[in-house]
Amino acid sequence: MRVRKRLRYLMPIYLLLLLFLATFVLSACDTQSPAPPSPVITEGERPSYDLDGFPPMIPHEIDDRAQCLACHRDGEVGKAPKTPHPEHNYCRQCHALEQ
Amino acid sequence: MKLKRRDFIKAAAVSAAMVSVGCSGQQGQVQETGTPGDPTKEVVDRWVKSVCRYCGTGCGVLIGVRGDKVVAVKGDPDNEGNKGLLCAKGYYLPEVITAKTRLKKPLIKKDGKFVESSWDEAMTLIASKFRESIDTYGPDSVAFYGSGQTMAEETYVAVKLFKGAIGTNNVDGNPRLCMASAVGGYLTTFGSDEPMGAYDDFEHADVFFIIGSNMAEAHPVLFGRLVERKRNNPDCVIIMADPRRHRSHEIADYSVPFKPGTDMALLHAMAYVIIEEGMTDEQFIKDHCQFSDGANPITYAEYKEFLKQFTPEEAEKKTGLSASKIRELARIFGAPGKETISMWTMGINQRVAGVFCNNLIHNLHLLTGKISRPGSGPFSLTGQPSACGSVREVGGLSHLLPGHRLVANAKHREEIAKVWNIPVERIQPVMGHHTMKLFQACNDGDVKCLWISTTNPAHSLPNATHYHPGMEKVFLVVADAFHPTMTTQLADVVLPAAFWCEKEGVYGNTERRTQHMAKAIDPPGEAKPDVQMLLDFARRLGYGDMFPFETPEDVWNEYMKCTTGTDMELASYPALREAHGIQWPVKDHQGTKGTVRRFAAPWDPYVKEGVSFYSAPDKRAVIFARPYRVGDEMPDQEYPYCLTTGRVLEHWHGATMTGNSPALVRAMPKSYVEVNPQDATQLGIKDGDNVRLTSRRGSIIMPARVGRPGVPQPGMLFATWWEVDPLVNAITNDAVDPASFEPEFKICAVKIQKA
What we know:
By secondary structure, chain A is mainly alpha-helical.
């Protein structure tokens, strides 16, 4: 009796945990996303950029002086993609706002 | 089934392990979900090699075409200039191509209203108006106003038509507003236009002396190259000399905020210190230089005597910089064994002292011998994509002829008359109207017919509204891809032009790199390339035999002949199609290698050894003792602030293109005037308040920004000028440099109050 009560009590929490892990897994391995830009190819003195397309747009609000690299340098904060080119210090030179 | 806690936790652990394994192949990156409208998600049929439509950097691009549409633009990784990198303006070009403002049919103004017409009706009207004016009032009653954004072939046809067929030198263009002073500087100092160095110098320079330029916003990809140089070589020194602090200062080692208009004092004082402290290359001066006061030759001793009025202590009184700082800068610039490159744009050029300031920068490189070698030299940055390739080189200013020639030079007129197969008397020996004189001539009724291509002077001229009545009065033809613009609205006939990737053509960028742009798609509706319009026009005026061209390549082949036998030969069209840009001179038009550096062996094919300024008089570059002058309209009691204007990364000039990109407009929606925080406090102005700016010419209201993005020094204001309303050029000053005729956009006197 006691075990069943405990299970009923904890089940929503287990489900939430499962959901959380599921979204994490799914978002991380979404095979339908475009390949991120290729890493920097260094030939001789200067690196060259074989960007396969388009600088991804910024899907979230930012401040005038956003510190992009705080989240995007290592890609460990939330779902922030890791930048393949942290040496470029002005992100909005290429990346535009989605809305 | 019973779910045991232990099982669940085990399962969760396995999932987590799967996640880390599954993601390791992506090098630790978390994949973002596809963005709406991301063109990489669309299939591209083919990538077409071209050049970006915007600034003088001349980034190589690849245009992605699917069916009959452009779906993507990306950087060309094989282009030496940008190596695959672009800025937001380039990436969002597809949005501009399909703008709602694209004009598809010719328009004729009837009873004050634009009516769609056929090409035949429009061209018949235009030809008859021009023919009538030429026959009644003479060739100088008509004119052409072109652009540093046209293709070389387009300007060549216009130059040949007006200067060689009709017989007027009234062909000018908007490079008069941006690069004329740089042209004047190179011509007077070296006898030959355009930088002798290249982007390649960035990777060899130890010192970057940047004055009157906001590269971060105006040449973003070049700025990126500078950032990279600093990152790879932290010992290199970046000096940012500018009365205003802006985003380029973020990588500067030295910020040099001289008072607006006082740069000649700084530059002369640096020369003084370089001489006084023995940083000159005496042998170089002896072998390759001469001195002049602008009117007559002078001696080295006389030049040193002249500089005594510009000691650092004297310059301190003028510039507001400390004498010790000026000395420090001169020592960095002149340090023996270090390579120094100078770069500048409109802060130096758009001045009544524009040519003089250019000369003084060249002086520093000549005194130290830091020129025409890797990492060293005076490297003027070009504003527009093809002011060099399409206008300076093709003769698209009223004093020029194709192949860097001058109308005033009898030998040059003969050479061009030979290529054009016309009697040499047809080419007028006197320069035609420069831009400001041209639009005043429209006001005065002296010019009766005007053809404008690929530019928007009703927006971009200084003191703009003063010239609107003339544009209304004159019979005005405007060829543009976009309508309405401020200029097309004043036209009698608007001709729909093919846009950038809808026609084949050639651009030439800052570093003498000539680049071919392939046609990617067809133009919409009945829009036509400007070359075709001008050829049709020429034939209707009766000059068909001078214009047997069918394609842009035909035009290029004749234009290329104008450079044969000079030291500025251009590459052949097939070579340009194949290569990713070729720097001239291309000796005997052969091959795709080009010339990275001029006036020195082993790079310049016309120099056997050492350095040779072979275009200068007696092969000696001129060091000028230019008299000091400040701006035409400096602040005074009544108008106590100095207003300067400039660009932002997101918008190009009058935003007739970039204003059609939702992404760029989102990034930069509103123009503004930057106010120094001290001044703002005194004036009771807060960030975001509307303020009224008034000059002797007019008054506008715009929002103020305090503290950011840029910070002008106290007593100075900086306004962006891309919006139609407020029209910042309604209040700017149209005084011109007496040598280059370039107007002084960068300095005028205003008063400011909270609106």
